Amino acid sequence: MNTKKVAFLIHNDFQDDEFRQPYDALCQAGFEVTLLGPESDKTYRGKNLRERATSDLGLDAARPADYQALVIPGGYAPDKLRLVPGIAEFIRHFDQHKKPIAAICHGPQLLITADILRGRTVTCYESIAVDVKNAGANYVDEPVVVDSNLVTSRKPADLAPFCEATIALIKGEKYVPNSSVSTRS
Question: Taking residues 71-79, what's their average pLDDT?
Answer without folding.
Answer: 98
